[in-house]
Amino acid sequence: MKTFVKQTLAVGILSTVVAGNVFAAPTETPPAFVKKVADSLIARLKADHAKLQANPALARSIVRQNLDPYIDSQSFTRIVMGTYATNQYSSAAQRAQFEKNFRETLIENYGSAFAKFSNQTYTLRPYKATGSKNPVVTLDFKHNGEKIPVSFQLADHGSQWKIRNINVSGIDLGLQFRNQFAATVKRNGGNLDKAIANFKPDADIDKK
Q1: In the sheet that 136-143 helps form, which strands lie side by side, from edge to edge?
Q2: Distance (Å, rounded) from C-alpha 36 to C-alpha 47?
Q3: What is the pTM (predicted TM-score) of this model?
């Protein structure tokens, strides 16, 4: 009888978990999610366009409120740290510190960039679902007559999508930042703590 009760309880718990996972799937399509994030961010930037050049902190605040909540910082951290994200090279505390620092510097970096291009518009490229766990949605931003393709690679976080990597004009930012971090580790003589403290990712795609 006890065995039957345990089995029944186990099945009930498993059913609840499975059902929870099923109903926790993102309700938005990948392009709908990216469009929502882009529209919200651009609307805020346009509304405060006149203030951004004189107030860099405002741009960072806008990015923090309208983009940061949708970034999969853990996945982005693993991409950027590369082999240093494994237990063989780093501790959980070091990875957590890297993620914290990396997130803050990204906000500063993107804030500065968006402050310069706050009046840009975009078009959404046609999207075809492939069943991939990490779908990619591409927007073509228009600025001063130039088309700038920005591709967002997403990750399924249950109830919503999150952005795990970004590609700008063919430049994979995750890979670019990974190379920069590896160089930072080398400059600091392999001292990971110093490298994490001193790492400043540069998203300027003109610096290849």
Answers
A1: 121-124, 136-143, 146-156, 161-168, 171-172
A2: 17
A3: 0.79
pLDDT of residue 198: 93
Q: Residue 63: which of 166, 181, 157 has the closest Cα?
A: 166
Counted domains in the chain:
1
Rounded to whole angstroms, the Cα distance separating 180 from 81 reads: 10
Q: Which of 173, 144, 152 has its CA nearest to residue 79?
A: 173
Distance CA 8, CA 49 (A): 60
Q: How far apart are CA 155 and CA 99, in angstroms?
A: 17
The DSSP code sequence of 81-145 is HGGGGSTTT--HHHHHHHHHHHHHHHHHHHHHHHHHSTT-EEEEPP------SS-EEEEEEEETT
**CA dihedral sign of residues 101, 104, 108, 109:** positive
Q: How far apart are CA 68 and CA 103, in angstroms?
A: 8
Decide if 81 is inside a domain.
yes
The identity of residue 122, as a single letter, is: Y
Residue 25 included in any domain:
no
Q: Which domain holds residue 54?
A: 31-198
Q: How confident is the model at residue 5 (pLDDT cuts 50, 70, 90)?
A: very low
